Amino acid sequence: MELLKRKFPRSSLFCMALVAVAMLGAQSAVAKVTLRANSQWPETHAGSQVDKWWADEIRSRTGGEVDIQLFFGGALGKAKENLELLRTGAIDIAMMSPGYFPAQLPMHAAPNSIPMAMSSVDQATELMERLMDEVPALDEEAKENGLKTLFFHHLNPYLLVCKDPVTDVAGMAGKKMRTWGKALPQAVEAVGGTPVTLSLPEIYEGLARGTVDCIPFSVDLVLNYKINEVATNISEITIWEGPTNATWISLVAWDKLSADQQKVVQEVSREAFRKDRDATLAAGVEARKELEKIGVKFHAFSDAEKKKWQDANPDFFADFIKEMEAKGKGDAARKMIDIWRNVTS
Questions:
Q1: Domain total for the chain?
Q2: Within this chain, do residues 232 and 309 fall inside the same structural domain, yes or no?
Q3: CA nearest 145: which of 4, 237, 285, 252?
Q4: Dihedral sign (CA 54, 246, 204, 301)
Q5: Residue 18 confidence (pLDDT) above 70
Q6: Around 325, how many Cα atoms within 13 Å sit in the side-chain half-sphere?
Q7: Which of 84, 188, 202, 213 is deepest in the core (most CB within 10 A)?
């Protein structure tokens, strides 16, 4: 210490100490970026395992500077509350389906809602990557709601899961089916069914009590939500396929991150999108085997009957473009649909 005093004046030592304290303080401040994430899915879902990987990887690649705390099964709020929770700062991140918010997020909601417009998980991946990269209006829409979209999750095809077998369009007459959004209820009504709005946690009880007769659901979600206990018939018709809940971060939370941290989050998010696709496909294969093993019956739904249902539906693409034109976003909507048709052709 005496040597230091002789080598450096007391004022210099004081300045050095201040610098050291400031550096420690800055490091401490960076290390305390903690973000709370609310997921609508149960922890057992394949996408939830990807979310865990995503959070761990961000924590690792930022050297512990960014800590994302995950809460599953809507522990911090119900699925339809997520947008308001993000806006008010009650949460920082939400894994939420845009289809629950068609008024606020209509462009994001379209791929999450329009029925019978995609047939495979791979198409959903390609479509959303292209839309996010080629249609700036989606990013603008997120910003209008104080959000930034990080990546989308996937779902296996939503087949027709019913209490009794349904093998043709005529079999849908009078059936009560769980729906969401704007387009799917129209598709149900087009074949004589009755749409019923239920949230995910309500579907088991809805089937058990007869509130609904059928639900569109993927085979892995049938297991996750134990739907096989109340409905044991699955018809081989894809009612809906596409991207599901996106991982969104509020712009307030995003701005808490440094440029380097933001870069890491975006890199890991793109990787998580592809990882989620692979996990979803694998979960679907295993779930189908398990369901067949425990006695769930899969029923054929002929191509002719599928086409009959599709032909009965409104022109959902044209309706979407018309809706977006009224909002001054017709060109962006047309570009979206052009990409969509290209991906699914």
A1: 2
A2: yes
A3: 252
A4: negative
A5: no
A6: 7
A7: 188
* 170 Ramachandran zone, left/alpha/beta (phi>0; psi -120 to 50): alpha
Q: Residue 2: pLDDT band by 50, 70, 90 thresholds? A: very low
Euclidean distance between CA atoms 265 and 183, whole angstroms: 33
- pLDDT for 298 beyond 50: yes
Q: What is the pTM of this model?
A: 0.83
- Report d(CA 51, CA 47) in Å as an integer: 6
Question: Cα separation of 41 and 219, whole Å?
Answer: 15
For residues 308-325, average pLDDT: 97
**What is the span of the domain harbouring residue 199?**
158-242+287-344
Q: What is the mean pLDDT of the chain?
A: 91
Structure tokens at 202: 């309500």
pLDDT tens digit sequence for 146-197: 999 999 999 999 999 999 999 999 999 999 999 988 899 999 999 999 999 9
- The set of residues, in sequence order, having a beta carbon less than 8 Å from that of 237 and lying 6+ positions away, is 159, 160, 301, 305, 306, 309
Do 267 and 219 share a structural domain?
no
**Are 215 and 309 in a shared domain?**
yes
